[in-house]
Amino acid sequence: MLFAFDLDKTLVTNDYRLPERTPGVLRALRDAGHAVTVLTGRPLGSARRFLDALGVVGPYSVNHGAQVMDAGGRELRRTRLLAADVRAVLGPWAAHPTVEFSCVVDDQLFVKDPADQRWHWAHTESRVVSRFDPTVDTDADKVVFAAETTTVEIVEHVAAHAPHAERYLWGDGFLEVVAAGGDKGAGLAFIAARLGFEQHQVVAFGDGLNDVSMVRWAGHGVAVGPEAHADTIAASNERVASPEEGGVLEWLERHYLSPSSAR
Questions:
Q1: What's the pTM?
Q2: Same domain, 35 and 71
Q3: Are residues 92 and 126 in the same domain?
Q4: Total tally of structural domains belonging to the chain
Q5: Runs of H (alpha helix) within 179-259
Q6: Nearest-CA neighbor of 76 among 151, 187, 152?
Q7: Could you read off the pLDDT of 212-244 as tens digits, one per residue?
């Protein structure tokens, strides 16, 4: 079997911790002959510490399904928003007084205002944050808007000017936009084919809106936690508890491992 995991709120807790038992359970899966992969909305630099702790060497996907990597950091698949789409998506927002945005290219963020507090988290992670230059054509792994009251207006603009793009609207006022085919479902299909697994041999775990295509594509989908998105729950076969409560780990032990094998 191939087991595919989201990170945040699936394996990683709300306060960004990896529960102590988790690496051992995933190691036990691999020792039992199963394959393990991760598909996360995080870029590679932000995901790497979790990938290393979990022993996941590839293939895995970052920036949702936009970038699939193999062991040694070799890029297997890249799906980017082309510069024309970036221009169309950003449209009128470059001059908007309150809307912030970033174009994510590898682990670098090109943002409207590097000093804006909405990018404070990127500075704390030592990410490279540079000012976006609208005169330079930029292909992007994803575009992220940070707004509040104008978020719906942005969604409508993106839908009208880049209808083929994938959109993920989060409740904290962030909207992520990736290219068509840059979703986790497409990434998981690619990873499964590369590893020689058919769809019915894949189990996927996730909680967020960006996990819907992944759990829907898998032969068996599992929604995680009390805050799982309604669409993720609807696309899944069942639901388990949060990572704080060991939901994924208990499911794996119950169905594929004995508890002693994961120590």
A1: 0.92
A2: yes
A3: yes
A4: 2
A5: 184-195, 212-217, 230-235, 247-255
A6: 187
A7: 999 999 999 999 999 999 999 999 999 999 999
